[in-house]
Amino acid sequence: MKIAVAGTGYVGLSLATLLSQNNEVMALDVIEEKVNMINNRISPIKDEYIEKFFKEKQLNLKATLDYEEAFNNAKFIIISTPTNYDDELNYFDTSSVEDIIEKVISMNIDTTIVIKSTIPVGFVESMKKKYHIDNIMFSPEFLREGKALYDNLYPSRIIVGSTDDKAHLFASILKEASLKEEVPILYMNSTEAEAVKLFANTYLALRVSYFNELDTYAEIKNLNTKDIIDGVCLDPRIGTHYNNPSFGYGGYCLPKDTKQLLANYKDVPENLIEAIVKANDTRKDHIVNMVLTKKPKVVGIYRLTMKTDSDNFRASAIQGIIERLKNKNIEIIIYEPTLNINIFNDCLVVNDFSQFSEKADLILANRLDSKIKILKDKIYTRDIFSRD
Fold first, then answer.
1. 80, 131, 272, 321: which could form a disulfide with 7 (CB 3.0–4.6 Å)?
2. Known active-site residue 253
């Protein structure tokens, strides 16, 4: 069948690649450079499996700037456009999603809209009422940066926010394209599916915050963080996963999803959700305080990205730390090889590693890799396990 995918970020491109193994897929984007790259089988994002599939697989995939070409005769239209959180409105900016919905309606075609973008709880129901449509549902994604296609090939679960035949068909094409034999599939209302997405990501943010606060305690009290985490996590109810301290949670999902979930609690009693949101700022404040105790003249930032295998630094925790250090009049130099500019956020960007390491007398690294480990005497990091 023909499937259209609107938006070619991590979610959209991984889905387009996945589904084009067995279906005709048209990927829609507004950036001509990305469209040309996809059509030339060059991945515009860093993802090992997408790059591998582009080189090795015969994919029935075409990218376009023309929404009518993309949507015409499509059985499903998947929306995976970005929904950033608006701190002033306390609400996701869902304008890009609504724009696609309006384009689909204007074409008067027989199709089903599947939203993969993260949205507020109750959004699909509000769209049904606003536009007087029923052919729309939400299906959350659970992907990691740099491993989006892998996580689609080996999904932890497939959730579809509908229970009709079209929902079962959509789940079946996702399952058919995966490489995992047994995949739990859940059907529910879109409102519950929207809540699943926000609560799942907020729990992950909670776990990050918990081990960061454990590390803050250990660092201030001069205790061995690794020994404490090892002892805590051997309890099988807690487990040894997702427990590596960091400068804070960041990236595409966790910062905005936690804030959106908190906004959804405006008429509901809570303590924990608000604490998770505040904990991330507290962690950044602590990191900055520890840096200031070392009295550096020039602080080097090793990578703006959150993870070793990612090229994304949207809402990365290190950016909040940079802002705080700038407010303390600390000179900052940044090493980020994915940037082709000399200045980022009023800070000098240097892509020559030797120049960077010579100029900085203290280097902040959220995650260590082999390139930076040789400078261990200059590094400040909370990466205890060299992973995640």
1. 80
2. yes
State the chain's mean pLDDT as an integer.
94
Give me the residues paired with residue 299 across strands: 332, 362
∠ CA 115-117-123, rounded to 5° = 65
Cβ neighbours of 173 (radius 10 Å) = 17
Q: Are 14 and 45 within 8 A, CB to CB? A: no
Q: Which residues contact 166 (CB under 8 A, 6 or more apart)?
A: 112, 135, 137
Q: pLDDT at residue 309 above 90? A: no
Asked if 263 and 91 touch (Cβ cutoff 8 Å), the reply is yes
Catalytically annotated residue among 38, 78, 253, 360: 253
Q: What is the pLDDT of residues 350-369, one digit of tens each?
A: 999 999 999 999 999 999 98
For 121-164, the pLDDT digits (tens) are: 999 999 999 999 999 999 999 998 889 999 999 999 999 999 99
In the chain, % helix, strand, coil (3-state, to 5) comes to: 45, 15, 45
Largest CA distance in the chain: 65
Q: How confident is the model at residue 252 (pLDDT cuts 50, 70, 90)?
A: confident
- The single residue listed with the structure tokens 């990578």 is 303
**Contact in structure between 118 and 256 (CB atoms under 8 Å):** yes
Q: Which CATH class is domain 227-380?
A: alpha beta
